[in-house]
Design brief:
Blueprint: H1 5-10, E1 21-24, E2 29-32, E3 38-42, E4 45-46
Antiparallel strand pairs: 1-2, 2-3, 3-4
Length: 70
């Protein structure tokens, strides 16, 4: 699912610097051009909550059953 180009022009990181975001359609993510936080896009809706973002290089915790990162 693609995001509207006009929407992408106005979206910005919710952190205090409000930097522009880049969109990865394949991964369905938006990445801040300044801090590198990665925000998910779920069902075509950008989730721009700092608590939902991942930091660049932050490894996900492995699943306790399989031992594989999710």
């Amino acid at each position: 699912m693609s995001l509207d180009p006009q929407l992408l022009e106005i979206l910005a990181c919710p952190d205090t610097h409000h930097a522009p975001l880049t969109y990865d359609e394949r991964a369905q993510t938006l990445t801040c051009t300044e801090c590198g936080r990665v925000f998910p896009v779920r069902d075509g809706i950008p989730v721009l909550l700092l608590d939902e973002a991942t930091r660049p290089g932050a490894a996900e915790a492995p699943d306790p059953v399989s031992g594989v990162a999710e």
